[in-house]
Amino acid sequence: MTKFNTKLIHSQSQHDNQTGAVNVPIYTSTTYAFPSVADKSTWDYSRSGNPTRDYLENQVAALENGAHGFAFSSGMAAIHAVLAIFKPGDHILVSDTIYGGTFRLINDFFKRWQLEFTEVDTQDLQAVRAAIRPNTKAIYFETFSNPLLKVTSVKAIAKIAHDHDLLTIVDNTFLTPYLQRPLDLGADLVIHSATKYLGGHSDVIAGIVVTKTDALAEQIYFNQNGIGGVLSPEDANLVRRGIQTLGVRLDRHLSNASKIVEFLESRDEIAKVYYPGIVGTPDHEIAKDETDGYGGIVSFDLRPGLDSTKFVEGLHLILLAESLGAVESLIELPYKMTHAELSEPEQLKAGITHQLVRLSVGLEDADDLIADLKQGLDQVAQA
Ligand SMILES: *Cc1c(COP(=O)(O)O)cnc(C)c1O
């Protein structure tokens, strides 16, 4: 088998045309002619299957070492299709630090359909075991939490899940298959917001699900086709293209992130840096064992008394914006932006203070990013 970077480019051969095109065409046709009434060709209608989307789905399945991939119109549509395999009365354990939109989908949508959820700290394996009930069917989490980058062990959770006949579901948006392949570590379903690193250019909203087994693939396919949140062929092409440069982009994200961590740790204005690459924590030990790198997101607390709003608004190069995982560096204040839906007590419980800053490190020159952070810190330090 070829190595990972080769797989990024060549996992699927492009052989469905007579032109010699090296890339799969964007098939815009919504419908496909039947050779005869009795036998349809592979394709019949584009919600049910589209050659461009299919290419992307196979591409991601190969990278995650899964049985089948499925592409959706957003990360949320992908998560919806996964949670919709369960039935009323089923109970699912969810990490207490998952993406805010996932909490909204759970609390304001799926609970109305009698799915039961318990939030649990997935770093606390005792607590996970204790929360399992007779009707529990799955454990759902993100390996690196947002925004504090707490690390959950896929191996440990998958072991507990297997002991109790539960599915392990991992949202792998922050790491991507370049840095972690949860199915290899025992997970059953992997989800991506492909809007982030897989797309990588802040120009497409998309979601992916990869299953470990054919049986799970049948259930996800039923929901993809039946609920209908499919990715368009144009957007499938953008994600396909983004994935081809995933390795080179992630290498730069990683090296920039580690330089920025080193810089932040040298500054008096910073009270604490959150990054799983920092040695000496249990998070680092898990990440070292189960990932091939510590990601491109760095969070940090400004020292009490320093004005976090002034700091993020005073940057020139780094953009003040939500989202993450793209070529440009983005900074934000979780308490006011990505995590504003949490009440203040919930924020504090999650460690999200007004001093907390989340930085999605982009692909610019590290020296320029550090110079921008430095002038921003100098400004707030002087105030
Ligand atoms: C952004 C994000 C989502 C939601 O994806 P969309 O593409 O915005 O619908 C889900 N999980 C994580 C971890 C995310 O960062």
3D structure, described in words:
With about 375 residues, the protein is α/β, with parallel strands linked by helices. It has two domains: about 5-245, Aspartate Aminotransferase, domain 2, CATH 3.40.640.10; about 245-380, Aspartate Aminotransferase, domain 1 (Alpha-Beta Complex). Helix content is about 35%, strand content about 15%. It is built from 14 helices and twelve strands. β2 (about 90-95), α4 and β3 (about 115-120) form a beta-alpha-beta unit. Pyridoxal-5'-phosphate binds next to α3.
**Count of alpha/pi helices:** 14
N-to-C span = 58 Å
CATH topology group of the largest domain: Aspartate Aminotransferase, domain 2
What name goes with the CATH superfamily of the largest domain?
Type I PLP-dependent aspartate aminotransferase-like (Major domain)
Strand content of the residues, in percent?
15-25%
Largest sheet: 7 strands, mixed
Q: How many DSSP E strands?
A: 12
Q: Cofactors and ligands present?
A: pyridoxal-5'-phosphate
Write the H/E string, N to C.
Answer: HHEHEHEHEHEHEEHHHEHEHEEHEH
What's the architecture of the largest domain, going by CATH? 3-Layer(aba) Sandwich
Task: Indicate the CATH class of the largest domain.
Answer: Alpha Beta
Shape: globular
User: Which percent range fits the helix content?
Assistant: 25-40%
How many structural domains are formed by the residues? 2
- Structural class of the helix and strand makeup? alpha/beta
Overall pLDDT metric: 96
- What is the CA-atom radius of gyration, in angstroms? 21 Å
Major sheet: order of its strands?
1-7-6-5-4-2-3
As residue ranges, the low-confidence spans are none
Protein name: Cystathionine beta-lyase
Keywords: Pyridoxal phosphate
Organism: Levilactobacillus zymae
Family: Belongs to the trans-sulfuration enzymes family.
